[in-house]
Write a structure and sequence with these properties.
Blueprint: H1 2-9, E1 14-17, H2 29-42, E2 45-48, H3 57-71, E3 74-77, H4 85-88, H5 91-103, E4 108-112, E5 117-121, H6 128-131, H7 135-143, H8 148-159, E6 167-172, H9 183-190, H10 194-204, E7 209-214, H11 218-225, E8 230-232, H12 258-272
Parallel strand pairs: 1-2, 2-3, 3-4, 4-8
Antiparallel strand pairs: 5-7, 6-7
Helix pairs in contact: 1-2, 3-5
Length: 273
């Protein structure tokens, strides 16, 4: 906490929190509470990546609002969206939870990117209970072919009703021949179901596989775009357009168009059209 206090005094704009449940274990509830208190005291923004953007988006948003209510810290939700058809139906209610917070006087904002296709890690499709454990244990589960935990993950993926023809491998550490192909393409070639392909790719690449996936509702984007508390962001990566990238590592991936075109696209969709 001392380090964060010094950083704030040195002039940082805000603090980013992923809850330690999105990418890797990090913060405990007590630590999060302490960080928020420091942020509120010093008037800086706390930026959150919510825990679950799928069917559990409502409790994830409610958690953020609860923390904002408890701490009174300025709160920002990064790239707000609902992933997959099971999550789309909850999006309007999620916005309602945010607006209820506004009605209480809480300072809550969000951003979004103007694309229905995400650019993220294949790891994000795993259930939250898996993402909360360490990578070594996750890989052990994936390698245990007939274990209950692995079968539970497969069933979770089946229940997500993912459209595998709309999920493209953007980069990987190994099996680079899969880059640019959809999960459906790989499934057809190998004869394995899409859920199994996801786990095989994650296992072979030490969980480091990036993807593009068409899993966001255009109607939800349009609804979020008109909210006064929401702003456009690229959520992209900075590329040097003069550099020739070789597909040889996780850093040398297929760029998501948002890295170059988020704001021109937003001007076209939300202003001109």
């Amino acid at each position: 906490m001392l380090f964060r206090s010094k950083s704030i005094k040195a002039g940082v704009f805000g603090i980013s929190i992923s809850f330690g449940s999105v990418y890797a274990p990090s913060f405990s509830e007590k630590e999060i509470s302490e960080v928020l208190k420091i942020a509120a005291k010093n008037g800086v923004v706390v930026k959150h990546h919510i825990e679950d953007e799928g069917k559990n988006i409502l409790p994830s948003i409610s958690r953020v609002i609860g923390l904002a209510r408890e701490s009174k810290a300025k709160t920002h939700i990064s790239h707000l969206k609902a992933l997959g058809k099971t999550g789309w139906g909850y999006f309007k209610n999620a916005l309602g939870v945010i607006e209820s917070g506004h009605n209480e006087g809480l300072k809550i904002t969000s951003d979004f990117f103007p694309y229905t296709r995400t650019g993220s890690s294949l790891f994000m499709f795993l259930p939250s209970w898996v993402r909360k454990i360490g990578p070594v244990e996750i890989l052990e589960i994936l390698r245990a072919r007939d274990s209950k935990k692995r079968n539970d993950i497969l069933q979770y993926l089946k229940d997500m009703t993912l459209h595998y023809e709309k999920i493209t491998v953007a980069s990987a550490l190994r099996k680079l021949e899969n880059t640019g192909k959809t999960i459906a393409d790989i499934s057809k070639f190998s004869g394995l179901p899409g859920e199994e392909i996801i786990l095989e790719l994650l296992e072979a690449n030490n969980l480091q596989v990036s993807i593009f996936s068409e899993v966001i509702s255009e109607e939800n984007i349009d609804e979020l775009a008109v909210k006064e508390y929401s702003v456009i962001a690229s959520d992209g990566v900075g590329y040097d357009i003069n550099t020739k990238y070789e597909i040889s590592s996780i850093e040398s991936n297929l760029p998501h168009p948002r890295s170059f075109g988020a704001f021109p696209r937003a001007m076209r969709i939300f202003v001109r059209e």
